Amino acid sequence: MTRGSATAPPAKLPMSLATQVGLSGAELKLLQSLLYQECAVFIDEARIPLLQERVRQRLQACRFDDFYNYYRLLTSREGKRELGALLENVSARETGFFRNKPQLELFQKAILDELLTRKVARREWTLRAWSAGCSTGQEAYTLAIQICDAVSSYYLSHPTPPEAGRFKPLVPPPWRIEILASDGSYAALQTARAGVYPGNQMEEVEYSHRLRYFDKIGDRYGVKPALKDLIQFDMHNLKAEYLPPASDVIFCRNIMIYFEGAEQKRLTEKFFRCLNPGGYLLVGQAESLFGLTDKFRMIHQNNGTAYQRIDGTA
Asked: What stretches of 107-176 show up as alpha helix (H) in DSSP?
């Protein structure tokens, strides 16, 4: 193992050394097993070349010339952040504002309207959502924008509850919006918490939403504090048994494709337990609960798909 001094940044490893480092079959199995045990991420045969390349990159970044020394770091107490960096490189997901518009239209026009109507009937004024695998935050902020819009519209088109007074910024009383946004990547969460995005990432954000929910900072856009305050960003490995507070809706999009069947079933069961009765789970376009559970019913509308927890199941 070679490392640079603490006082000056070390020179990069020669490219010849970085590119010569390859993984044997035994080393691959060790790494596959570690990623599955620690992160529940299943690396199938199709993604072995990607894993090989990402390990070579991380070896160079960490200045290791030997796989087993790198593996020892990954399995040490000090190596959790490096394990997260490797995982982020292996399972990097596309993210952005307002992705999968048919699904978001279903969420905005059908799911949120049903949830708000049901809550008003029960005189419950808190709506909780969980963005599981929020990456750099665009999905969580999209969720917050859509919920704020829905609550404000509902407030205007229905009789004001006795408890309500004047409007507060974004969320009219007595409503409360609580959004948990979690991810296993420390670097991604840092970006999400900062909430500042370049202009080229804002193409799918309507002009009215930019005015209401963002501040222009040079050629970048910063999420306004009032919207940020609705979201709690948290480090969370989906393999952990931790259950967030009862949610009305969970977004977990393009995450389960990295898990094998048994882990997908366990995760689906976890989401069932996290949801309030009648709550909704939204997964990615390439994902399905078919064959994993009978505790959800599928909702399909104008190419948008979601799953609703079935009352009376346990």
From this structure: 112-122, 138-157
Express each pLDDT in 157-175 by its tens digit: 775 555 544 545 588 888 9
User: What separation in angstroms does the CA of 281 have from each of 102, 189, 206, 284, 295?
Assistant: 15, 22, 25, 10, 11
Taking Cα atoms as reference points, which of 198, 187, 168 lies closest to residue 83? 187
DSSP 51-73: HHHHHHHHHHHHT-S-HHHHHHH
Closest alpha carbon to 297 in 126, 134, 146, 111: 111
Per-residue pLDDT tens digits for 95-150: 899 999 999 999 999 999 999 999 999 999 999 999 999 989 999 999 999 999 99
Q: Whole-model pTM? A: 0.78
Domain ranges across the chain: 15-90, 101-309
d(CA 229, CA 247): 18
* Residue reference for tokens 């020669």: 14
Cβ neighbours of residue 4 under 8 Å, at least 6 residues apart?
10, 11, 63
* Pairwise CA distance, residues 8 & 62, whole Å: 15
Residue type, 156: L
Half-sphere exposure of 132 (CA within 13 A, CB side): 27
Overall fold of domain 15-90 = Chemotaxis Receptor Methyltransferase Cher; domain 1 (1.10.155)
Beta-bridge mates of residue 178: 128
Phi, psi (deg, nearest 5) at residue 127: -120, 125
Closest CA to 213 of 49, 97, 300, 123: 97
Q: Would you say the CATH fold of 101-309 matches that of 15-90? A: no
How far is the first Cα of the chain from the last one, in angstroms, to the nearest whole number? 52
Range 101-309 classified under CATH 3.50.50.60: no
Which pLDDT tens digit goes with each residue over 15-35? 333 344 568 888 888 888 888
